[in-house]
Specification:
Largest sheet: 5 strands, parallel
Order of helices and strands: EEHEHEEEHEHEHHEHHEEHEEEHE
Number of helices: 10
Number of strands: 15
Helix content: 40-55%
Number of domains: 2
Strand order of the largest sheet: 3-2-4-7-8
Strand content: 15-25%
CATH superfamily of the largest domain: Reverse transcriptase/Diguanylate cyclase domain
CATH architecture of the largest domain: 2-Layer Sandwich
CATH topology of the largest domain: Alpha-Beta Plaits
Radius of gyration: 30 Å
Shape: elongated
Structural class: alpha/beta
Distance between the termini: 22 Å
């Protein structure tokens, strides 16, 4: 008997802060005495400092090493430091740029700001004031990083089902469009599987929604275990799940669906102080198909197959009906253990089959 315990990561985990690395400062200064003095003061503040003495060396440094704040002189042996400033802003680099130079005219300062500098300090300078300006710049960098991280988390959450932690319908629709376009362009096989938990409403009615949630999580876990990394699984809505199987013709997709169905049958779900057994029905459609011209039509074909699986008694896998010999598929499947084995697909013609 297969025992299934489901551990679900809550959304709070997305908000866990990672250990912060020391701010990285890039210093482009051709005067070795000024560079040494600045490096020592900045390192005393706990900041990482990397130094270059020319525009070209600075360009290589900034391209090869991550940095948060740039301190650059203008008058360098091979050019103007503002050249680098303009290149960085043209590339939309988010780092903070502080120009530190002897060019003290109003025209020079205005030119610096117009080229993308965030701050402009003239020589000679007070080291305490420079450190204060750097701290202010790093605070802005930290705020920018926090905003980017927050937007990334929000984007991730918007594509993730909060209960099962697999992708949601919105993510599936976008992935379907992309993968179908690839399959159509290169005439490669793509299969879609729609899965529905049998009698799920009765589970909720008899045992409560907490048990229903545990069942959804368990089925999602079986799907995750029984598919390849290149496959795409999502909660399609309610008690329905959807799977995209790239490079998988219809017969192989039927094998996948049957193995997942058997794995769900074998699973024992512990929830609400009791053990529960569930079953699923699945409908499968595959491209290339003469009647399928879009990802939406592929899913509609899989949905029609799922409807037949329900009408024919549930707890079964039904293919789309393009050939009579594929009208039904319910072979015996051996015990699968705790994890459905990943399949090893071999490109074959209709007279051969692939190995698992």
């Amino acid at each position: 008997m297969l025992w299934l315990f489901v551990v679900i990561r809550t959304t709070d985990n997305y908000m866990t802060e990672q250990p912060k690395c020391p701010p990285a400062i890039a210093l482009i200064e051709d005067d070795p005495n000024v560079a040494l003095m600045l490096t020592r003061h900045l390192q005393r503040e706990g900041w990482t400092v990397r130094h270059a003495a020319t525009v070209e060396d600075g360009r290589n440094l900034l391209a090869s090493q991550p940095w948060d704040l740039l301190i650059s002189d203008r008058s360098l042996p091979d050019g103007d430091g503002l050249q680098l400033c303009g290149e960085l802003r043209d590339a939309a680099h988010p780092g903070y740029i502080l120009m530190l130079t002897g060019e003290s005219s109003d025209e020079a300062k205005l030119e610096g700001f117009e080229r993308g500098a965030d701050d402009y300090v003239t020589k000679p300078f007070a080291i305490s004031e420079l450190i204060a300006r750097i701290r202010a710049g790093l605070r802005i960098v930290d705020l920018q990083k926090a905003l980017v991280a927050s937007n990334r988390r929000l984007a991730e959450l918007s594509l993730t089902d909060g209960l099962t932690q697999i992708r949601n319908r919105r993510a599936f629709d976008a992935e379907l469009m992309t993968r179908f376009d690839v399959a159509r362009r290169y005439q490669r096989p793509l299969s879609a599987v729609l899965i529905d938990i049998d009698h799920f409403k009765a589970i909720n009615d008899q045992h409560g929604h907490a048990v229903g949630d545990a069942v959804l999580q368990a089925v999602a876990a079986v799907l995750s275990a029984g598919t390849r990394k290149t496959d795409f699984i999502a909660r399609y809505g309610g008690e329905e799940f959807a799977v995209l199987l790239p490079e998988t013709p219809l017969l192989e997709a039927l094998q996948v669906g049957e193995k997942v169905r058997a794995a769900v049958n074998e699973a024992t779900i512990r929830a609400g102080g009791r053990e529960h057994k569930v079953a699923i029905s699945a409908g499968i459609a595959s491209y290339p198909h003469s009647q399928v011209r879009s990802g939406r039509e592929l899913v509609h074909a899989a949905d029609a197959s799922l409807y037949r699986a329900k009408a024919n008694g549930r707890n079964r896998v039904e293919p789309e009906r393009r050939r009579e010999r594929f009208a039904s598929f319910s072979p015996a499947v051996p015990h699968l253990g705790a994890r459905v084995p990943r399949r090893c697909i071999t490109e074959v013609d209709d007279n051969r089959h692939s190995s698992w």
